[in-house]
Amino acid sequence: MSDTADRDPEFAFELRVCRWAERAWHPDGPRPAIVARQLGTRNRRWDTVVVEVDPDAFAARYALSTDGFDSDLLRVVRHAPADWQWYRDAIPEPDFPWRHVVPAVHRAAGLDLVEKRRGSRNRVEYKQTAPYPDWVERIVAIENKPNLDASAARALADQLEHDVSRALADEVWVATEATGDRVQPALLEDLPVEVGILSVGDESTEVLWHPSKLTPDDADARRRLVLAERAYDRGWRTYLDTMRPDCRHFELRRRGMALVPRCGAKDCYQSQRECAHSCSSFEPEPPAWRTRGWPIEGGPGKGLRRILESRRERARKRVFEDIERDDGHEM
């Protein structure tokens, strides 16, 4: 098996799409955005999620916390008042008992996201340390199919029809591997006309079909924001959380613009399913690898994790730092 073979071509392709979107979103012109993978709702999970952001508001969101907010924290922080207020007066009434909200207020205060105190009648009062910014502009969903033939298009049709009719995202795309061949008209007919099609190569991306702009329901505003917060928290490089980078055969190889996991033992680009605790080829890193550096820096596995985490942070900061540099240049 050659060293370019894939055990899971969709996984490697997905990482390449995420890296391209992080560097060059949007196909119609640059738009500040963050990228995540394998996110969605209880009923639908998307391969790639692109959250277009307002750079100044995103900088304020980053200053508030470098971690994403779960739905409970988001409810508390988003509605935190400027002045002291009883939490029940500040937060819209939830569809579950109020007693479940109080722990989130305490948790937010413990993270310095809000201030809290005991007010009159021993009520829990709180206020913001900084306002929660309106940082999300649009949400875009991308389904990745490197081998988009007629049968794959038919299999995707129902899922994409659901995405279009549900309109939780502002745009829906299908990304496929660039082959240089002309796309068959019959293939386009199998997909909803509202869905865009991207042809993704190692160095460039071409729009084969432009998507329609969808109109999300105002009632989904909170659900969309929860999705955006999860994208902010996770990014797209969290695949190491379910793989074995502590194996002596695990490495990252550049493929196009992305770093893709590769297995030296199996001589292939592997996936999360392939690189698991049940892998018969797993060999732990030798102890000597983990004692290089001072006092103990860890082995190559921890080093790879640090590399990916630092790249995620660098990509986040670039969203608003590029704007700051442009502003400074114009002055």
UniProtKB/TrEMBL annotation:
This is Uncharacterized protein. InterPro entries: DUF5787. It holds the Pfam family DUF5787.
